[in-house]
Amino acid sequence: MRILLTNDDGVYAPGLRAMRKELQTLGEVTVVAPAGEQSAVGHSITLLTPLITQEVLDENQQAMGYAVEGRPADCVKLALLELLKEPPDLIVSGLNAGSNAGINVLYSGTVAAAVEGSFFQCTSIAVSLVTNKPKPPNFPLAAEHARRVVEQLIRHPLARGSLFNVNIPNFDKTPIKGIRVVPQNIAPYQEKYDRRIDPRGRLYFWSGPDFGCLDPHPDTDETALCEGYITITPLHFNLTHTGMLAKMRDWEWTV
Fold it and tell me: Which one is the CATH code of 2-186+215-248: 3.20.20.70, 3.40.50.720, 3.40.1210.10, 3.90.1210.10?
């Protein structure tokens, strides 16, 4: 099996290294990932600047893949169109440091990389770990859990371009109870900005570190993660509101 591995934390992130080691038990892994951190960049791509690309080595000085001066979606696009000799059988994005549940899916560079793979009709899986800062995450154990989930997913006959979002709970807080397939939580998040004045008297704002969902919908990725379950959410990128579409076709329109 040929596997393309990417992320949004950067090519040298410990989560990616741990994920690579686990995926190598399943097949040949090629890394194409951002040269630096690209968290929360969503599905942005680079148009007006060159995508500088450099080969990178692993800890054993063996070829690992490529670092790209671009976004996660750039990495997948470039890998599939230019860098890989053969198309991958699977794309994995992660292992991300931090949850990508709920509406974080829309901000996440990790998920965006998987979505880009799905655009190209590749089975794609985004994988994230709920972290408890400042304690260092146990990426090797999380990657082991993630690999088991990947193994179980690909055992099934999947349509081309299948897309999945996997989140692993903070097992420092509670033992992992199992795996649940759940929908994405769409309840709003609580967000705060720290209002400050700089030394020149100018007003500025700094996004606060607490970004949580105070009242998540039951039986969703957010609630299942809090209960200690690994969550799997099948996604698609068709944003069409089909119910509204049907209604609007009956409206009278003039030009």
Answer: 3.40.1210.10
